[in-house]
Specification:
The structure is a homodimer.
Chain A (H helix, E strand, L loop, with lengths): L4 E5 L5 H10 L5 E5 L11 H16 L5 E4 L2 H14 L4 E2 L2 H11 L5 E5 L1 H6 L1 H9 L5 E5 L3 H6 L7 H16 L4 E4 L8 H8 L4 E4 H15 L11 E5 L3 H12 L6 E3 L2 H4 L10 H4 L1
Parallel strand pairs in A: 1-2, 1-3, 2-9, 3-4, 5-6, 5-7, 7-8, 9-10
Helix pairs in contact in A: 1-10, 2-3, 4-6, 4-10, 8-9
């Protein structure tokens, strides 16, 4: 495997980013880590998310990535400045690409942002959008149920999904937003249902494509771009590889051939104790 | 503080058990730990839950508990045999008390069990019920959305809660169950909505009262019962003490005066690194 792009998320959501990167950059190899033992991040404090995200990056660093993508909105919103100080690789989060994508479609009407509690309360999207569009009105709404709904395997056609979305999106409809930022990597899977509620003249902004474009730009800039051949992918999780494989194929839009489980001992690098099996811990 | 009863859960749910124990045994002191940095347990593998539960118990052991209550159905279902081998304190989970409670109300009709994915797939309730009632028909249904719904602060009056419950409870209604075991410590907060859907002749079995009764019995048996004075309570969490305090008062049915946050270094006992602040990790 050539020096890969390292990508991590709290769980499955980041696979929508992997999909976009693989389409845009088929020659690149990818190493993905999903922290499924500690998912979700979106209901946890910034400090805890920063700590988990640093451990996720440390794990990826074993595979000597040339570039790291923080494919988790919550970690991007709360931990990116700290991560970029600590790790030497060039690094990209998903918030700035999201703000850039919304700038491209802005029509002067208010901009809606839907995301996890932690992302919304960080104010990261609001700041990133206002830096580009200082006169824009930003309407934010935390949507804590959407991640569990998607993780349960429900899709845009599900009546519960539609009822929950109708409730969450109400303040955005009332504010007559012209665009909605899908500020969580799980949300692209509910795009059809969100579009049905918001109407045809509201643009839905999914940062995955912009992230892929930005990764291509950065790799070119750093002379790190792979141009020939077909890249390889490896997937690691901290728990439940079978579940990741089953639910993950909807996110990746293709089969995931194999998922490797990382034990806490491997994950944390320096083992606190080094038991081979859980029975020895207990 | 006299030697306390140690109680842990993945998060907030175990407070319904604390409430029942405090009412039944007001002279007892309680130390509670909620693993809010890694919540929820119900979507994770048995091995990971066992590992987390062992770490939770280890933390409680610093307060020299005379008795440990595993106030988490998922941990009770997947980790109790391992925990009871590893820790010397007498220990009680919530599954056996739940099965005992359903036995007391059984009318010959099928028995419904609603719980997290991990609890249902462990088969622990089915086994515990069939051991007592070998001819009973047990209808199990995993309800992954109920924990996030309750954690978001929604209650029985919420239309989304009612829609989700109507869907989950359908197979139990079709099977004409005579009782429903609330196999997750979060579910008692949705009791009214579940009762409205199931109808008046279906008994709802909440193990919290039975757990409190069983703790009283065990403490008497071991000559550990506190009979005079008023017990003290301390609450610890691994993340988000403010959120725990705010949402937790609905579970405890009283104010939580203070919640202490435990850092991973304190929590894991032997620090891997010993930074004072997250910036030093990063």
């Amino acid at each position: 495997m050539a020096q890969p792009i390292g990508i991590f998320d709290s769980g499955l959501g980041g696979l929508t980013v992997v999909r976009a990167i693989r389409r845009r950059l088929p020659a690149e190899s990818v190493v993905y880590f999903g922290d499924t033992a500690r998912v979700p991040y979106g209901i946890k404090s910034g400090e805890t998310v920063a700590r988990f995200a640093a451990e996720d990056c440390e794990f990826l660093c074993r595979y000597q990535p040339k570039f790291i993508v923080v494919a988790c909105n919550t970690a991007s919103a709360t931990a990116l400045p700290l991560l970029s100080r600590r790790f030497r690789q060039p690094m990209l989060g998903v918030i700035e690409p999201g703000a850039r994508a919304v700038q491209a479609v802005w029509n002067g009407r208010p901009i809606g942002v839907i995301a996890t509690e932690a992302t919304i309360s960080s104010g990261a999207y609001r700041r990133a959008i206002l830096r580009r569009l200082p006169t824009a009105q930003v309407v934010e709404k935390a949507c804590p149920l959407l991640v569990p709904l998607v993780e349960e395997g429900r899709d845009a056609a599900d009546p519960i999904v539609r009822a929950v979305l109708a409730e969450y999106l109400k303040p955005l409809i009332e504010a007559k937003v012209g665009a909605v930022v899908l500020g969580c990597t799980h949300y692209p899977l509910l795009k059809d249902a969100i579009a049905a509620i918001m109407g045809r003249d509201v643009a839905l902004v999914d940062s995955a494509e912009t992230v892929a474009e930005e990764v291509a730009y950065c790799l070119t800039n750093y002379h790190l771009l792979e141009t020939a051949g077909v890249g390889d992918s490896r997937f690691f999780v901290s728990d439940n590889p079978e579940r990741f494989q089953t639910v993950g194929r909807r996110f990746l839009a293709e089969e995931i051939p194999s998922v490797e489980r990382v034990t806490p001992e491997e994950f944390f690098g320096t083992p606190r104790r080094a038991p081979a099996r859980v029975e020895e811990v207990l």
